Amino acid sequence: ASLATGPRQNNSIFYEIRTYDIKPSKMKEFVEMVNKYFHLRTAHSELVGFWSAELGAMNKVVHVWKYDNFAHRTAVRHALANDKDWQGKFLSPALPLIEKQHNEVAYLVPWCQLGKPPKEGGVYEWVTFQMKPGGPALWGEAFQAAINAHINTGYTKLIGVFHTEYGLLNTVHVIWWNESPDHRAAGRHSAHEDARVVAAVRDSVRFLESQQNVLLIPLQCSPLK
Q1: Are the beta carbons of 89 and 40 closer than 8 angstroms?
Q2: What domains does the chain contain, in order, with CATH numbers?
Q3: pTM of the model
Q4: First CA to last CA across the chain, in angstroms?
Q5: Is residue 45 helix, strand or coil?
Q6: 94-127 in b/e burial notation, b at 16+ Cβ within 10 A?
Q7: Which residues pair with 35 in a beta bridge?
C-alpha cells in the first residue's frame, strides 16, 4: 500500500522543483545575481538545493524547495509578493534574463529520505525517468530494486528520489552525488558489468518510457554542495 500512494498519506511535506532556462548571454549575470541576493529568498522558506546544468542541458538552473503543506507555500508566495527587497533587488532585474520557467510538485518516495553528500565538492547527477502510467503501484517495487542495486555498488551516493504530483505524472527524479564526473564514469562502467545491477535494470525498464540525465554543479547559495 505504501508503494501505491506515497508518503503524503502520513505527512504533508512536499518539494517544489523549479527549472529555469536562462538566456545564453545572461547566464553569468543570472548566477552572479543569485549569489548576491538569494538570501532574500531563503529568508522565507527552506531551499534544498540550487544547481546549474553542466552536461545534458545548457543555460539551465534547477532549484528545489521544501514546504510543510500547500498552505505553507501559499503563505510564502504571499510574503514574497510583498517583500520589496526581494522584488526590487532580485526578481524584477532577474526576470528579463529568464527565457522559460517550469515547476513541479513532488513527494519523496516512501522508501527514501533526503540525503546529504559525504563531503562538499563533487557533482550531482539529476536523472529523470518517465514511467508508464499506473504509478508506483505498478512500477514502484521494480524501480526501488534498480535504485538499490546501484546504491549497493558503492560508487555513488543517493540524495533523493522524488515522484511528481503536479506536472507530468509518473515522472521520477533521482538525485545522485559523485566525487567527480570521472569517478561517476568509472562507477557506471563497473555497474554495467555487475550482474545484479543488470538484472534489476532489465526488470525495471519494462515500465520505462524515457530517461534523461543532467550533470549539475551546485551554486554558492545551495545547501547541498
Answers
A1: yes
A2: 14-105 (3.30.70.100), 108-218 (3.30.70.100)
A3: 0.92
A4: 35
A5: coil
A6: beebeeeeeebbbbbbbbbebeebeeeebbbbbb
A7: none
CA-CA distances (angstroms) from residue 176 to 47, 69, 84, 154? Answer: 18, 26, 36, 12
Is the Cα torsion angle 68, 73, 76, 80 positive or negative in sign? Answer: positive
Mean pLDDT per block of 10 residues along the chain (225 residues) reads 46 94 98 96 98 97 97 98 97 97 94 92 96 89 94 92 94 96 92 91 94 97 95
The predicted-structure confidence for 59-98, as pLDDT tens digits, reads as follows: 999 999 999 999 999 999 999 999 999 999 999 999 999 9
Position 214: which residue type? V
**What are the cell numbers at 195?**
550482474
With cell 515522484, the residue in question is 163
What are 189's three cell numbers? Answer: 562502467
Amino acid identity for residue 183 in this structure: H
